[in-house]
Amino acid sequence: MKLTRSQLIMVIVLGALAIGVFGCLVGIIVRNSRQISQVIAPAAPASPPPVRTEQPTVPPTPTASPVPTPTSTPTPIVPQTRYDLQVAGDPENPALRVQRGYAYMTLGAYDQAIEDFDTAIGLDGRLAEAHVGRGEAAFHLKEWSAALKDFERALALNPDLASAHAWRGYLLSERGKYGLALAALRQAVALNDTDPWKRVLLAQALLRSGNPEEAQIEYTTVLSLEVRSVEAHVGRALAQAEQRDFDAAQADLDVAQSIAPYDPVALNGQAWFYAWYRRGHLAEAEQLAQRAVAGARDDLERARYLDTLGWVYYKQERYEEALAVLEEATVLATIEGEVVYGEIVEHLEEVQEAR
Predict the structure, then answer these.
(1) What pLDDT score does 26 carry?
(2) DSSP 226-238
(3) Which backbone phi and psi does 338 adopt, to 5 degrees?
(4) Distance from the Cα of residue 135 to its chain's centroid
(5) Which CATH class is domain 262-355?
(6) Which residue in 290, 280, 277 sits closest to 321, CA to CA?
(7) Assigned CATH class of 81-159
(8) How far is CA 355 from the centre of its chain?
(9) What's the Cα-to-Cα distance from 259 to each of 73, 198, 220, 233, rounded to whole Å?
(10) pTM of the prediction?
(11) Would the CA dihedral through 319, 321, 322, 327 be positive or negative?
(12) Which are the contacts of 351, defined by CB distance < 8 A and separation ≥ 6?
């Protein structure tokens, strides 16, 4: 069947429309395929809600409190000396041990000094100098019985060792045993009469034992050997004051303070002079004594300066302060259960009675 032109055009138009409609349907189906599948497929049963299982309550683990780390005692630092390398290279040399022991002494390292002196004595028991050194260290550590034994052992090994006589005499003088002390110190001076230190020790013992005239002579001899000796100027001033020569005493005290204005020996000497012989200067004496106490180099020196300060307070009628200061002095001057400076005890008793 032959179509006319108009019929052919109509067929083409209808075909194009059919194709367009079919394309639209396909697009709609693709875009809504999920919803269509849910409508066509049977509905799946709803999942049951999850069952909550109650877990037992577990108490929290307690946090341990941090334990503080114990503080360890710091190891004392051993001071260095110029002998350390030599001793390390030759530790069995007793002479080197003695030399380092004395070097430790100058540094105030008395325990280390004793260790070296012990070693030296162990290596050579006949080293008298090692016994003197160990005795000196024990003296500073307030172990006076051990110190005295060492000095006497040194003298048994070497009766002509001047330093052993001097230290033995000094220790006995500090204990107030002036008869034995003077004999030992005179022997030390006889063996070495050009050493100012030994003569100062002798002069001090003479002054404390009640012999200011001879003490003055010894102090003058010291000044001929060492003109700038503060100890000799102060000691001679106190000896002169005991003999009522106050102008000469003040002159020596002035020289001592011009040499070393901050030296506690000079400060205490002037304070003591004022407290005993110049009562109009008690306020100045108090300041001087306080400065001397502050500058004391060891317990025994501090005890003597506190004695001066306590006496100043006593003269000012400040009895409670005097009592407290003198009680502190007795504690510092107690060696092996004994107060070695009897004058401190006497002053303390006087203050107690005045209260």
Answers:
(1) 45
(2) -TT-HHHHHHHHH
(3) -130, 135
(4) 23
(5) mainly alpha
(6) 290
(7) mainly alpha
(8) 37
(9) 43, 21, 17, 10
(10) 0.77
(11) positive
(12) 310, 314, 319, 322, 323, 326
* pLDDT number for residue 355: 82
**Residues near 344 by Cβ (< 8 Å), separated by ≥ 6?**
303, 307, 326, 329, 330, 333
CA distance 93 to 29: 113
Which tokens is 325 given?
């200061």
What phi-psi label fits residue 67: left (phi over 0), alpha (psi between -120 and 50 degrees) or beta?
beta
Residue spans of the chain under pLDDT 70: 1-76
* Six token digits for residue 22: 């079919």
Q: Is 208 helix (H, G, I), strand (E, B) or coil?
A: helix
Amino acid of residue 6: S
Structure tokens at 347: 């002053």
For the purposes of burial, counting CB atoms within 10 Å of the CB of 11, is it exposed (0-12), middle (13-18) or buried (19 or more)? exposed
Q: For residue 130, which phi and psi values (nearest 5 degrees)? A: -65, -40
Location of structure tokens 């809504």:
32
> In terms of DSSP H, where are the helices of the chain?
5-31, 33-40, 84-89, 94-106, 110-123, 128-140, 144-157, 162-174, 178-191, 196-208, 212-225, 230-242, 246-259, 264-277, 282-294, 299-315, 319-332, 342-354
232 close to 265: Cβ distance less than 8 angstroms: no
Phi-psi region of 102 (alpha: psi -120 to 50; beta: other; left: phi over 0): alpha
Please list, residue by residue across 65-92, b when 16 or more beta carbons sit within 10 angstroms of its beta carbon and e when fewer do. eeeeeeeeeeeeeeeebebeeebeeeee
The vertex-51 CA angle with 47 and 54, nearest 5°, equals: 165
- CATH 1.25.40.10 residue ranges of the chain are 81-159
Q: What is the pLDDT of residue 22?
A: 52
C-alpha closest to that of 275 among 245, 238, 312:
312
For tokens 């109509």, what's the residue? 10
Crossing angle of helices 178-191 and 196-208, rounded to 10°: 160
Query: Letter for the amino acid at 159?
Result: P
Q: Using one digit for the tens of pLDDT, what is the confidence trace for 4-58?
A: 665 555 655 455 555 554 554 545 444 554 544 443 444 433 333 343 434 444 3
Comparing CA positions, the residue from 167, 159, 156, 89 lying closest to residue 134 is 167
